[in-house]
Amino acid sequence: MKKIIILLFFIQSILFSENLTNKELEYLQNNNFNIYVNTWEPYIKVSTDESGKKIFSGVAVEYFEAITKDIHINYNLIDANNFTNLLKNLKIDPNAMTLSSSKTKDKESYALFTEPYVSYPIAVMTKRDKPFISSLDKFQNKVIAVGNKFTGVVT
């Protein structure tokens, strides 16, 4: 059975607890969720205060807090340190979630997704002193570095 990664608690369009069934509310209130994140600004930022305590902020964190404001949910925000660790934890932890991730064929094998709550264009950027890239055709026979498991990969 697929492990469930509930991106934003499958409540993406349900902002108030009165829209949830009693069974859904009971499930949310009687389980403890581990929410794995890593810094991906402006959606999520993980920082540390003077005492060493992790601080989680960003658009996805604020959205999550707004959705869960009136619903009692037990959760731990966990810094996965990087995207590869985040995906690994989502595969092995049966109570895992993340707040912000794109749907890919690979992730669909172990995760469930809400409808996207934000979208953005994928773009190629270069240093200012390098030539402008007007088309992907400029990359014919070139090697391009892309992060492991990143969704902006064109194959």
Number of contiguous helices: 4
Q: Which range does the strand content fall in? A: 5-15%
The tally of strands reads: 5
Please name the CATH topology. Answer: D-Maltodextrin-Binding Protein, domain 2
CATH superfamily, by name, is Periplasmic binding protein-like II
Order of helices and strands: HEEEHEHEH
CATH uppermost class: Alpha Beta
Average pLDDT confidence is: 80
Spans of at least 5 consecutive residues with low confidence:
1-17
Describe the 3D structure.
With about 160 residues, the protein is α/β, with parallel strands linked by helices. It has one domain: Periplasmic binding protein-like II (D-Maltodextrin-Binding Protein, domain 2). Helices cover about 20% and strands about 15% of the residues. It contains four helices and five strands, in the order αβββαβαβα. The protein has helices at about 20-30, 60-70, 85-90, 105-110; strands at about 30-35, 45-50, 55, 75-80, 95. The strands form two sheets. A three-stranded parallel beta sheet has the order 4-1-5, covered by helices on one side. Strands 2-3 form a two-stranded antiparallel ribbon. Strand 2 and strand 3 form a beta hairpin. The radius of gyration is 18 Å and the shape is elongated.
